[in-house]
Amino acid sequence: MNRLGLVLASADDLALVAGLARAAVARRLAVRVFAMHAGVRALAGDRAAVAALGDDGVEVVACATSADAAGVDLAALGVAAGSQDDHAALCAWADRVVAFA
Amino acid sequence: MTTIAIVIDHRDPATVAEAWRAAVGVSLRGARVIVAVRPGSADGGAGAARARATLALFGHAIDGDPDQLEADVIEHWYDGAPTPTAALAARAPVVHLVRAGRAVGAVAPGDRVLQLGSPADVDFDRVLDAVAAAPPRVW
Q1: Which fold has domain A3-100?
Q2: Which 12-71 residues of chain A touch chain B by CB within 8 A?
Q3: Given this model, what pLDDT does residue A50 score?
C-alpha cells in the first residue's frame, strides 16, 4: 500500500482521520483526504487539525456543495474546494480508502 | 475496474440523500458502483430518487446486499443503530473498523474486526497494517 485515501463525511471522526493520516505519512505513504456532508463542518470546527494535516503534506479537498450548505469558508480554512469528481478521483488514486461516514 | 460500494444504513433523510449523492459522485471516474440499502434506512427524498435512477440508467447496481458486498472501496453510511449479526457465507474478506460505542454487524469467514476505541487509544499502525491487507468497512 503506497497511497491512502481518507473520506470524512461524519461529524465526530476527524481525530481518527488525522491519526490515520499521521501514521501513514510516518510510513511515507501518500495521503489524501476528501471531506463532504458533516465532515466539512468537522474540518471547520478544528482548524488546528486541518493545519496539521497540511503541515504533514496531506492534500485535503472538501466538497464545495457541502461547504456552501454549511456556510463554511473553505478558503479561510486553507482547504481546497472540490466536487464529487474529487471524491471519485480519490477512490481511483488510492490503493486503499477508509471512509468515515 | 475499481468497484465501490455505498452502504446506506442510516435513519436521517438528509444523510441518506448525501450518501446517494456520493454514490453518483464516485461513479464519475469509471468505477463500478454498488449501492446497498439496509432495510429501515430513511428515504432520501427526491434527490436520492434521482441519483438512484441515474445510477440504474448507467448500469450500476442499486440493490446490493449490505452484508455480502465484494468491493475495493466500501463507504458505509452508518448511524450506529443495531444491525443483523447472522453468520455469513464466505466472500472476499474485509477488515471491520468499529468506532467507539458502535458494534460490528455480520462478519464473514476470513474477516478481521478491529475495535478503534477513542482516538487517543487507537494503534494506528495496527489499523494501517489491517487496512493494507483487506478493504476496510467502518462501523
Answers
A1: Hypothetical Protein Ychn; Chain: A, (3.40.1260)
A2: 13, 15-16, 18-20, 22-24, 27, 29, 36-38, 66
A3: 98
